[in-house]
Write a structure and sequence with these properties.
Elements lengths: L1 H30 L9 E7 L3 H12 L2 H5 L2 E8 L5 H8 L9 E3 L3 H9 L3 E2 L4 H7 L5 E2 L2 E2 L1 E4 L2 E10 L1 E6 H6 L25 E4 L5 H14 L1 H14 E4 L2 H10 L4 E5 H10 L4 E4 L8 E8 L5 H12 L1 H4 L10 E2 L8 H4 L2 H12 L7 H20 L2 H16 L5 H12 L5 E3 L6 E3 L2 H13 L1 H19 L1
Helix pairs in contact: 5-16, 6-12, 8-9, 8-16, 9-17, 9-18, 16-19, 16-20
Length: 470
C-alpha cells in the first residue's frame, strides 16, 4: 500500500512539475523586460533641387542597404527659397519632431551662410568620411569641400557650370546671333525683338543658380561694368521667378536664349537636339561644387550622414546619370560603372567643363555682397522692369536705326545702368550715397537681419530706379 501511495505521489509530483514548467514557459515572454524596438527614422531634408532629382533620389536611396542599416523609412523634402533657409532651419530646432536633418543643393555661398550661423555640423560618421574621401578637394580651382580645422562641413554632391541654353529656331527666325559671351546678352541686338523679350533670366532672390551667374559677371567684368551688363541683360529679358522656368521658356521657344545652370541646358539639348544647345560663355564661367551637409539641428545625425554618404558614393551618384536629371557628378568614379559607361555624352560634357575658361572667382567676395546684390537687382531690375525695358527699347532701337552715335549711345547706357551714378538716400544713415561695392558690403548683413530696413531700402531703390529710367 505504501508503495502505491508513493507511486501516486511521484506521479502527482511530476504532473505538478510539468504544469509549473508549462505555466512558466507560457509566462516567460511576459516576464522579460520589454525589448527596445529600433526606431524607424524619417529624415527631413531642406533642398533647392527639383522633384525630377528628388523623386529619383528617394526611390533609389530607400531601397539601399545603408538606408536599411540605419532604419530610414522615409524622406521628407522641404523645398524652400534660399532667403528663408536660415530662419526655417533655426525655427525647426524648436519644433520637436520637425527638426531638419540635411541641407542639399543651393550652391557654396548658401552653405557658407549656414556655417556663419552655426547651422552645420562636421561629418564624423565613418561611412560619410569614407565617401567624402572619394570627392576631390577641388576642381578647376573651385572648392569641392568646405574644411574648417580639419573637419568637413559640406561636400559637393554634384558639379555645375553656368551659361546659356539657346533655341536655334527662335534665334534664326529673329535673325539674332548665337551668343557666346555674357556681354552679348546685354547688346542692343537682342533688344530688336522688344517688347517681346528674346532673353530669359531669373530673379536672384528666387534662384541660387542665377545669383551665381550674376556674381560671375560682377567678378569677371568688375563691379561697375558688371552691373551695366546685368542691367541691360535684364532690360533685354523676361524675368522669371524660377530658374527652371527660364529653361522651359528656351525649350518652348518663348525666348531665344536663357541663362541656365548646365544640367538644365543638357536636358534641353537631350530632349530637343535639333533646337536647343547649351553654351559655356567664352568670357568665363566657373565650376561650382553643389553641396550637401549635416545640419546642427538634426536629431538623427548618424542616419542623416548615412544619406549624405549614399548621395556622394558611386552608387548614389548614379542619380545624376538619369536622363531626366543630367547633372555632372562630383564623384568621377561613377563614370567607371556600367551605368556611367552608357553616358559618354555626360562624361564628355564633364571633361569640357573642366577644360573651359574658368575665371578667378572668390566665394568670400561673392558672399560679402550677395544679399545686397540680390535685393538691388530685385528693386532696380525686377520691380522697375517696365520702366527699364521701355527706356532701353527706345534707346537701343535709336542706335540700331543709326539715329544716335555710338559715343552718345555709350554715354546714355552709362547714365542708365552705372551703379556709381545711382543716387539714393540710405534710410538708416540718412546720407546720400551710390551703390558701390563697398556700400553693398557694408549693408549686406543688415539686409539679412533687419527686414524693415530691407523693405525700406528696396522701396527707395525701386523709386530711384524708376525715376532714373524715365
Amino acid at each position: 500500500m505504501n508503495k502505491g501511495i508513493s507511486k501516486t505521489l511521484l506521479i502527482v509530483f511530476f504532473i505538478i512539475i510539468i504544469a509549473v514548467v508549462a505555466i512558466f514557459s507560457f509566462l516567460w515572454p511576459y516576464l522579460q523586460p520589454p525589448q527596445k524596438v529600433k526606431e524607424e527614422i524619417v529624415l527631413r531634408v531642406i533642398t533647392r533641387h527639383g522633384y525630377d532629382i528628388l523623386d529619383v533620389a528617394k526611390e533609389k536611396f530607400l531601397s539601399s542597404s545603408i538606408a536599411k542599416k540605419y532604419h530610414i523609412k522615409d524622406i521628407k523634402w522641404l523645398s524652400v527659397d534660399p532667403g528663408q533657409w536660415v530662419d526655417i532651419i533655426k525655427a525647426s530646432a524648436n519644433k520637436p519632431g520637425q527638426e531638419i536633418d540635411v541641407a542639399w543643393g543651393g550652391g557654396p555661398t548658401l552653405f557658407d551662410i549656414l556655417i556663419r550661423y552655426n547651422l552645420l555640423s562636421p561629418l564624423n560618421l565613418s561611412e560619410a568620411l569614407e565617401a567624402a574621401n572619394q570627392i576631390p578637394d577641388e576642381l578647376s580651382g573651385a572648392a569641392m569641400k568646405r574644411i574648417r580645422d580639419g573637419k568637413i562641413y559640406w561636400v559637393a554632391a554634384a558639379i555645375s557650370s553656368f551659361g546659356f541654353t539657346t533655341n536655334k529656331d527662335v534665334l534664326n527666325k529673329a535673325n539674332l546671333p548665337k551668343p557666346t559671351k555674357w556681354i552679348d546678352l546685354a547688346n542692343e541686338t537682342y533688344a530688336a525683338t522688344l517688347p517681346i523679350p528674346s532673353v530669359g533670366v531669373a530673379d536672384p532672390t528666387k534662384s541660387t543658380s542665377n545669383t551665381r551667374m550674376y556674381e560671375i559677371i560682377l567678378q569677371d567684368y568688375g563691379w561697375e561694368k558688371g552691373w551695366i551688363i546685368i542691367t541691360l541683360m535684364g532690360a533685354n529679358a523676361k524675368i522669371y521667378d524660377q530658374s527652371g522656368l527660364v529653361r522651359d521658356a528656351a525649350i518652348r521657344g518663348d525666348v531665344a536664349v536663357g541663362i541656365t545652370i548646365d544640367f538644365y541646358g543638357y536636358t534641353a539639348q537631350l530632349q530637343n537636339p535639333e533646337l536647343c544647345e547649351y553654351i559655356i560663355p567664352t568670357d568665363g564661367s566657373i565650376v561650382n561644387g553643389d553641396p550637401i551637409a549635416l545640419l546642427s539641428t538634426s536629431k538623427h545625425a548618424k542616419a542623416a550622414q548615412a544619406f549624405i554618404a549614399w548621395v556622394i558614393s558611386v552608387e548614389g551618384q548614379k542619380i545624376w546619370l538619369d536622363k531626366r536629371v543630367n547633372r555632372m557628378p562630383a564623384n568621377p568614379g561613377v563614370f567607371d560603372t556600367p551605368e556611367g559607361k552608357e553616358r559618354t555624352d555626360l562624361e564628355a560634357a564633364y571633361n569640357r567643363t573642366l577644360q573651359a575658361l574658368v575665371i578667378n572667382f572668390s566665394d568670400d567676395l561673392a558672399l560679402s555682397y550677395e544679399r545686397a546684390m540680390q535685393w538691388f537687382f530685385y528693386a532696380t531690375i525686377t520691380k522697375a522692369h517696365t520702366d527699364l525695358q521701355s527706356t532701353w527699347k527706345t534707346l537701343a532701337k535709336a542706335r540700331l536705326q543709326g539715329k544716335i552715335s555710338q559715343q552718345d549711345f555709350n554715354r546714355l547706357i552709362n547714365d542708365l545702368a552705372n551703379p556709381l551714378l545711382f543716387n539714393f538716400t540710405d534710410p538708416s544713415t540718412g546720407k546720400n550715397t551710390v551703390f558701390s561695392q563697398s556700400y553693398a558690403q557694408s549693408i549686406n548683413e543688415k539686409l539679412f537681419t533687419d527686414v524693415n530696413y530691407r523693405k525700406q531700402l528696396v522701396n527707395i531703390w525701386q523709386r530711384a530706379a524708376s525715376a532714373r529710367y524715365k
